Amino acid sequence: MDEFGSNVERHRRELLVHCYRMLGSLPDAEDAVQETSLRAWRYRDSLKEGAPLRPWLYRIATNACLDAIARDERRAALAAKAAADESWAGTPEDVVWLGPIPDSALEPITPPASTPEAMTLRRETIELAFLTAIQLLTPQQRAALILCDVLDWSAKDAADLLEISAAAANSALQRARARLRERLPSPKPTPPAGTNANAAERELLKKYIEASEAADYRAFESLLRADAIFRMPPLPGISIGREAIFKEWAEEGFGTERFGQLLCLPIHANLQPGVAAYWRRSGDTTWNALALNVLQVEDGWVTEIVVFMRDNFPSFGLPMFMDATPERKAID
Fold first, then answer.
1. Residues 57, 11: contact at Cβ < 8 Å?
2. Residue range 197-322 in CATH 3.10.450.50
């Protein structure tokens, strides 16, 4: 690989995360990064001598994502609704392409400052709630928000990339921020000094796994907040409230012999805890991949469960079938 290609490759992981934020889908983000590399090579002579490579690559990657949005009928339809009607809010059900990203694919956590606030911002801008909300913005608003509030670009630099005026970029940014305030919960408070949030989250995940494998509704009552949300993109429908969630699970046979047994392995996706659920019926010896559950945790409660289809297992390095029950490991 030549020097230019090597320099581009060094930025691949952070570009993947940027494209994932823009598109909300890991496979689509991977395609966009590949397109970015091809465009960078094709137009390498346009990079002025001595000019920094990183912002140039982000410009190409952002445009590759905007082109991908325009080509996708589903995304383009939502973009048109958001642009035509400022009062249109959309719903999480509209974001049918949403998918998880394993923590292993994320760039090292190196925020611009080591303050707890910076760490919270870093985490919250990759969590599923944030990603879902920004997919309902216009593409221009989404790009302005990510460039300015996540990557810390100036509004002028964002405007140059988007080929709009600075005033238009500022307007898009302010509108995006207002929309997020409407759709997202309040920022999480910084944990008190001495609080081990990770240990508490690990313990909650352990209890969630135990409750899932035992189909223990009573145990789930102590884990799910009363107003918790359950959704399964791309399937329509959202269950809001613990009782509604339990009702849906019961209708699907969860906890009955008809449903079968569950085996849950801990995973980490979008910097959130989760489980990979495997399933088998009585008498079977093979565990079959079922779904990935990604959990939103606030104040010691599970506030949202987002369930993704089994075709996401390979991205997490997980097998589709297991002939033996794996040895239990401590939750990281």
1. yes
2. yes
